[in-house]
Automatic annotation (TrEMBL):
SMART domains xref list: HTH_GNTR, UTRA
Source species: Sphingomonas corticis
Coiled-coil segments: none
Protein name per UniProt: GntR family transcriptional regulator
Domain HTH gntR-type residue range list: 29-97
């Protein structure tokens, strides 16, 4: 059985090597940079499509007649660039990065639909209760004011992309059950969709509990976005904190 798996791995590596090309005899770059260049060019050309797997280090080492240390160095560089992503127990894959444009106020569901990806949610909790001091500051509410809270994992094509904590003013929606896939769609139906927002972005290390939800390692860098969404009359209706996987998202601002 072990020989069968090894043979299958060798054949997969050979097919990958045939697609991305071989080292050039006249190339004087270090071998790890040459391998990086081949894989990077294949990703950019669509030869190695988003979400596709990369052969194991040992298979690439045999295919290109180089050491596993050289392969590992090449792969680690591409992971740092955000072109590849490692998934525990599964292997290494071409990252499916998403550009989030800051100049447009849109929901996660709308962002994914615009990119041809299917958005979904894995609900963690839907609750109601009195506003916390932090929420009161963000929403401009008095102590004790009721709010609705939504915690969920946001997925694109069934891959975890973000962990989202949203708080909505109590009269912004009828109940927590009003929210399906899109919070903004629910707010729109209620006539309370935000038309402008103040957003703050910073990089933070992910905590263990949150890392498990996003299927990444504890301490991995994530992008924390804090957003306060306001209606036309200036009232803040939504306060959301989202942790986006650093290996999956690019944030773009047009200046």
């Amino acid at each position: 059985m072990g020989r069968i798996r090894a043979a299958e791995g060798d054949r997969a590596s050979e097919r990958f090597g045939e697609r991305i090309g071989r080292f050039r005899a006249d190339d004087t770059l270090p071998l790890y940079l040459q391998l990086q260049g081949l894989i990077r060019d294949a990703i950019q050309a669509g030869i190695a499509p988003r979400g596709s797997g990369i052969p194991a280090e040992r298979d690439l080492a045999v295919e290109y007649n180089i050491s596993r240390i050289t392969v590992r160095k090449a792969i680690e560089g591409l992971v740092e660039e955000g072109l590849l992503v490692r998934r525990r127990g599964a292997g290494t894959f071409v990252a499916g990065r998403v550009d989030k444009v800051f100049s447009k106020l849109s929901s996660f569901t709308e962002d994914m639909a615009a990119r041809g990806r299917v958005a979904s949610s894995r609900w963690v909790s839907r609750t109601t209760g009195p506003v916390t001091p932090e929420e009161a500051m963000a929403l401009g509410l008095s102590p004790g004011t009721p709010v609705l809270r939504f915690t969920r994992i946001r997925l694109a094509d069934d891959e975890p992309m973000a962990l989202e904590f949203s708080t909505v003013v109590g009269d912004g929606l009828g109940s927590t059950d009003d929210v399906g896939e899109s919070l903004y769609e629910a707010l729109d139906r209620a006539g309370n969709r935000p038309v402008r927002a103040l957003q703050r972005l910073r990089a933070v290390p992910i905590r263990a509990q949150h890392a498990r939800m996003l299927e990444i390692d504890t301490g991995d860098p994530v992008l924390l976005i804090e957003r306060r969404g306001s209606m036309r009359d200036g009232r803040v209706v939504e306060f959301t904190r989202s942790y986006y996987r650093g290996d999956s998202y690019d944030f773009v601002a047009e200046l």
